[in-house]
Amino acid sequence: MTTRLFQCLNRKALLLLWAGAQVLLTSTTTVRAADWRAERTFVAATDSHVYVVGASQPKDNALPEVRFWVVEREKALTGAPPASTYRLEPVLGEIGFALADAEVLRLLYSDLSLFRYHLENGAATDALFSQQSDLPPLAVAGDRATRTCWFLVETDGLLSPSSTTQPTTTAPTVTNRPQSRLSLLELKDGFWNRYPVPDALTSAGKGFVLAAHDGRVALIVSGDQAPLRYASFAGDEWFDIATIPNTVDTVSLCASLDKDQLLTVAVASETAPDKSDATTTFKRIRIAQQIADGWNITSPLRDGSELLLLAGNSSGYALVNDRLALTRTRDDGRIDFVMVPLTNDAVARFAPLSNKLEQKIGDEATTGEFLRTLIALGILTVVWSSRRNDILRRANLPDGFMPAPIWKRGIGALIDLAIPFAAWFLLLKWQDPQLFLELFDEPSGDPTLSERFESWWIALVVLYGLNCFVWEALGHASMGKRILNCRILSVDGSAATGRQLLVRNLVRVLVLSLQTPGIVATVMMMMLFTRNNQRIGDLAANTVVVHPIPKWMEEMDLYPPDQDDD
Asked: Residue 361: pLDDT band by 50, 70, 90 thresholds?
């Protein structure tokens, strides 16, 4: 009767495992088509992260597919490229503007819908810009130090606020509209405020760029045959209206304010159209940095030995500390990225971003882990079908011995792992310090690091298996088993042969190379499937790990608990 009950439990356990596999299958994020090609790119930066956003060329009247890349600012400054993350999944939409405040990335789409993208919480709708203006903004900026965003809009497009929770201000409304051409909208903690912009600054302006930091806003204005003008805004007042020298016939691409409220502007001048495409106009870029007694303007940035030329909307720009983050779209649709120092001799050396999307199963795992799970389930199925009688039969052990409990085997495995892990730890730190920091410091989300981890994991498993085999070959017990008074026997009660010890450790390496699914399969086999607490390697080698029967069990005659009655 006991055997029949055990068979029933094993069948149910197997069905549960297969059901779990189906759940994993339905929750897997699949690989996006490899033919995704970027048409437009955007860059936004905060004090903590650099974001790259790419939008594909729309096909068959469908909306463009928008993809995201992100990297921590400190790692970007050391040369680490942005990488995709499953926390920011691709979306469909036609982007108008990209901006970032101290916490989130925001995208304003062509239909004036505003969405925020948080690295932990994902995407969510934001405060309704369309209830503030029926026209798209002329410029946007996120405050890198606070949760505040700014929008420069045409006053004629302002609408009456529809929410009674909006704070009372003297800012322009439909019924109280000043004669100023433009207005500044502030979005702070979900509430909107409105402020007029002096016409003296904007009357002849054709291009506008905003920058914000710690509650202060800078507005840069470009016009025909005139240098760039700028002014600062804080509280509810404008001040410091001035010009940036040597910037006639230029446009500002992006700007930033540092903690000392000094302004840095990336300035572009148009060049002649490309001969191969008369409709494409390229820009060469200089950097204008505000200093204590004026401005420092660099020579044009270079791409190797040539001038760096970037084209229209296919390029993105953001200032990050003393670097300019740049993106450009290549002919094959991939996005190039670079962080250029703000110096006179700066040279841009672009590197392509990976189009491969980080994937997941459930919440965290990759498609590779899903495949490993299927392999582990397949191994369990094969073992169950081929070793069914051995699984259900009690081992013929010598008097005074019983199968070692699972907790002892687990502790023994951790002891056995100590020496191989220490050697692996030191080798990894020496040979691959970048991956070492990724594993033991802070993850960067770089997908190439996870690919390198695969080979290092196998190296750890091989060291572990080799360590166990050497100890077992010398005395039929690994170091951990010896400490816990366990040993390895054949299932017929005799000493395990060298061939059996080799087989059980080869299977150990094979199963553990599957990473988490292999570990889970081992534990499931020992807890639910076998009477003798055997793992898959024990079943393949016809071995069992035993320890002496505790005296209290002998005195109470608790082992063996019963005999097969069928």
From this structure: very low
CB-based contact 545:486 (threshold 8 Å) = yes
Over residues 9-28, the pLDDT tens digits come to 444 444 444 444 444 443 33
Q: What is the CA radius of gyration of the chain?
A: 33
Selection from 464, 462, 493, 492 nearest residue 480 by Cα = 464
**pTM of this prediction?**
0.60
DSSP string over 88-149: S--EE--EEEEEE-SS-EEEEETTS-EEEEETTTEEEE-S-GGGTBSS--SEEEE-SSSSEE
Contact 212, 148 (CB under 8 A): yes
CA separation for the pair 69, 58 (Å, rounded): 20
* 68/352 Cα distance (integer angstroms): 14
Instruction: Give 433-475 pLDDT, tens digit per residue.
Output: 877 776 776 554 454 566 678 888 999 999 999 999 999 999 9
Instruction: Give me the domains of the chain, ranges plus CATH numbers.
Output: 2-25+360-555 (no CATH), 38-159+171-352 (2.120.10.30)
Q: Are 67 and 84 in contact (CB under 8 A)?
A: yes
pLDDT for res 364 = 43
